[in-house]
Each structure stands twice: as structure tokens, then as C-alpha cells.
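The instructor's notes for this session suggest beginning with a concrete chain rather than abstract definitions. Hand out the sequence below and ask the class to guess, before any prediction is shown, which regions might be ordered.
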Amino acid sequence: MAVTTHSQSPTEPWTAPLARGPLRGDVSLPGSKSLTNRELVLAALADGPSTIRLPLHSRDSALMVEALRQLGVGVDEVAPGLGETPNPYGPDLRITPAAMHGDVRVDCGLAGTVMRFLPPLAALAVGPVTIDGDPYARRRPMHAIIQALVDLGVDVTDDGGGAMPFSFTGTGSVRGGSLAIDASASSQFVSGLLLSAPRFDEGLHLTHVGDRLPSMPHIEMTVAALRARGVRVDEPAVGEWVVHPGPIAARDVTIEPDLSNAAPFAAAALVAGGTVRIRTWPTATTQVGADLETLLPRWGATVTRDGADLVFDGGVGVRGGASLPGLALDLSRGGELAPALVALAALADGPSEIDGIGHLRGHETDRLAALAADLNGTGGSVHERAEGLRIEPAALHGGAWAAYDDHRMATAGAIVGLVVDGVAVDDIGSTAKTLPQFPELWAALVATGDAVA
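After discussion, reveal the predicted structure:
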């Protein structure tokens, strides 16, 4: 399938730095995007002010903050309290709920969490609301959330295509009750409805009726966040949730580091060799990035916990002559890890099949087509399948690597570029979506190999 670049802000190509020696990396990552944007929504609907500590500051979270402010919610930057750890990546946030008003046009950018989480919340406002985003975002699946609002009694106006832009006029309440949706294209449709459901008049009895439900850990994250704020959520069957109406408790919460954003850094140990330490890796979490702890050892990494940190040891790595095995993986639990793991598979000595990721065709770009195009353009042998990719061993070479405005495509290019000279990512700035500091953090990591080369 052909892929076209849709970058809105072209930049000079960024040539991925080569690893000259084994790494001795020590990486502190900003907060989880998934957790930050869920907690922002819940705090906006809570029964009092909440403080979000160590939140992510990125394009996706900034879009969520701006949308809440447009609706009348107070979002203020605050310094950490006495004895609290300061956030090196930005201030904490104090969220003050308010009666929400319309007369707004919400810009979702390319943020799936904004375009799927905001509409049910904004339907609780009074007045007209328009939901729109970047040009490519208008191609992302939205029909399930639009139809859900209609079925809940919200008068939605769109062009019939089930996509942005669309508009509705909020009346200050949503009926709620029983609702069936097909969330096969994204678990965010379920999470977006569950997050606002306690404020619906009748709560919500939501049933998924599609053939598949990808990224279940993200729904589990949503349910855990609701329960932590005192909301009663029942799960009578797989793919069925009952959220009871009632208050959402105000709560101060500390955001975990983004473990999905840890994927390229952890994978770097297998490619360049050496060790990469990820700081403050939680011992228990709902983040799907935690699967890296069991996935990377299948390629030969040794993973150990050292106090609060997790250390990934790649031995001599591909750079030092190690052979990565071909693997068969089902990533339906966590497709967001796929770009990094496909990059690893492209450097393996055996064929790999990575399946369960057909829904990635509806992400920031068609990630299956984009990965195939970039890797094949640099000498790879990647074949698209209905639900995934088959990656054959091939000798990669340098060349252009398109990011397609997709942060995970950009970081996949960086992984390959550790051992393939001349991989030129056309828009490394796309990483600002969830990790604005990526170029600096990556350069610092690779430099640890230069020091021992």
C-alpha cells in the first residue's frame, strides 16, 4: 500500500547517529502520555481541584490542556510542594473543574487521546462545539465515537463520513444508559466514553460488538484510573463495562514515566550493545510498555531491576556481531511498541512475523505501510499482511526515512540508524508529539558509546 508524506512543518533531515561502541546509558523519561491525558479528563470532571504531578509536557498533552481551558476548566502550572521531586521536563498542573461552556473549536492535532476523549466530555458543556484536527487526522477513524454520541442523544453534525470535523451543541448533560459500539479500530473509543460516563445521567452500560478489541491494557488503565477516583466500574463480561453515575473524586496523582517511549532506548542496547538504564520503572503498572521487560529477552537482552530502575543489557549487540533471532510476535496487546520492534526485526538474521497490529493502519499514519516503505527504501525486505508484517533478513543501507508526522516512525529510524550509516529522518521534530526531548536524549545515549569506542 502506498504511503504519502503529510508533514505540515518540514525540517532539515536528521541523520541518525551511529553507535561507535557499547552504550552505558542512563535515561530519565518524561511522564506517560496515556496516563497524563486520562488524568486531565478525570480531573476536569472531578468534584474539586486536583494536582497532576510529573505530567507529560508535549504536543498531545498541550492540546488536551488547551481544549480543557477553552471549555472553561482551570489548568494552572504550579511548582512542586515542599519535599516533592521537581519535574525536569516542566511544571506540575493544578486542575480546577468548572461549569463548561461551548462556543469553541477544539484542535485535536494528531492526538488520538484528544480526538476520542474530548467529545464525550465536551458534550457535557453548554453550547456549540466543533472537533477538528490536523489534515491527516481527518482520515483517522472516528465513526464509533460520533455514532456513540448520536446514540446517547447528542445532536451531531458531520459530513456523513464518520470523521473530523464534526460539531454538536451541548446541553450540559448526556443521558447515558446502554450503548453498543464497535471499537475494533481503537480501544480509545471505549476509554473516551468510560472516562466521562460517571457524569452521564444514567451512567453507562457499554458493550463492544466488534470482532477484535486491540490494546486492552489501555482500557484496563482507564478502568483503574476511574476506580482510583472512587468511581464504581463493573465488568460483567469481556468487552462489557458498567460505569455507575456519581461523583469523580478530586485526587492528587503522580504520573509514571512513559514506558512506551522507553522502547527505542531499551531496544538500543540490543542494537548497539551495552546497557541502558531506564530510571524509576514502576514495579506495577497498567502501561503496555511494561511488556518490554519480557519481549526484549526474546531477542537476547538481559533485563534486571536495580532499585527503582530497570536495566536492559544487550551484550555486544548487533554492532558487536551478535545475531538477533527472527521471531513470531502477536502485539495486539500493545501495538504502539510495534515500530520499535519491527526495527529490531529488520536487523535480525531470521525472518519475523509481527501480527495483531492491523489497527495501526488508522494511527498517526498507516504504520504498516509506512514501516514497509521506509525499511524497503533502505534495502529491507518487508511485506504487508492483513494484520501485520513479515520481515525477511536483508542488508540495510542508508537513505531517506520518512516520519509521516508520526513520532514512532521517527524513533524507529533512529534505532536502525545506530548500525546503518546515513539513515536520514525527514522530520525528527515529529517526536514532540509525546517526547519533545527525544533528539537530545538520543544523542546523549549514543554518546555514551563514543566514550568507550
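Then share the key points. Residues 14-24+258-450 form a domain with the UDP-n-acetylglucosamine1-carboxyvinyl-transferase; Chain fold (CATH 3.65.10.10). Residues 205 and 242 are 4 Å apart (CA to CA).
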